[in-house]
Amino acid sequence: MKNFHTIIQPEPSKNKIGYDTPMLFLGSCFTENIGNKITELKLPVQINPFGVLYNSVSVRNGLEILIDQKKFKETDLGYFNEQWFSFYHDSEFSDSDKKQSLNKINTSIKLATEQLRKAEYLVITFGTAWVYKYLETGNIVSNCHKIPSKEFERVKLEPADIFVEWSNLISRLQELNPKLKIIFTVSPVRHWKDGAVQNQLSKSTLILAIHQLKNKFENVEYFPAYEIMMDDLRDYRFYADDMLHPSKVAVDYIWDQFSKTYFGKETTDIFKEIDKIILARNHRPLNPNTQNHKNFIKKQIENIQKLSKMYSFIDFEEELRFFTKNKNY
Asked: Could you tell me if residue 13 is inside a domain?
């Protein structure tokens, strides 16, 4: 049968990701779409230690903080709307208690620093080439924290800006961790408040800069998440209700392409077993007191125990606790 859409199938990477491949993900909310799936499948990954970061400068700043092992002090925080916050972090790190905010920030940095030093893959998703510069300091911020817009200047980065700064950063990363490989993606989420033309110009800026980096560094790869969404899934049925974010179906499709690109058969076979556990855990029985359901729970516990022996490098304790708590036989 003739295909009625353009199929984009990235070439399988020669560098495969497995359960012995530590990873660190940073970037836009699309990073979390893929990263959360990887977490669910129990691969060794950490996601967005600074929260969601949309632009290349914020991601670069975050990585430099990890390289330098910076420890945040009270003077590094701002205060607005009864919340202590960091311009380098998303609002999930803000708190009405200054010490609590610092504790969340520094704990996350410590864990991510350790992960970066041992990671074999760093996955970066850029969302936009537009940045906000805080007029008081001249610094580009990761999050405006609802501070009035008049206190910021909105600026669009140029490909050369991104290329130069990231060239220096990648060199530093190579010194820190010579085995590190980097996968860049561009978020398929459309920033419609910029308008159609400016959104496309922004995405094009990011793609051009990334490919310049890919041409310069052997350890840099590009996964075409944006292109898959724009061309392979060229239909509004693949968008969420806001017509800007990919739907679950679209995210799953892009994940499937990512999986084919970076995971080998041995790893995907394990995925299938874990997916069965996830499906069983999400099952909601009409009557949990029936013998049939009790047998179902017992079967899940036995299956998890079996998988724990087969794959001793995967931690199934959370799933075992869940089903053990719900057993009633």
From this structure: no
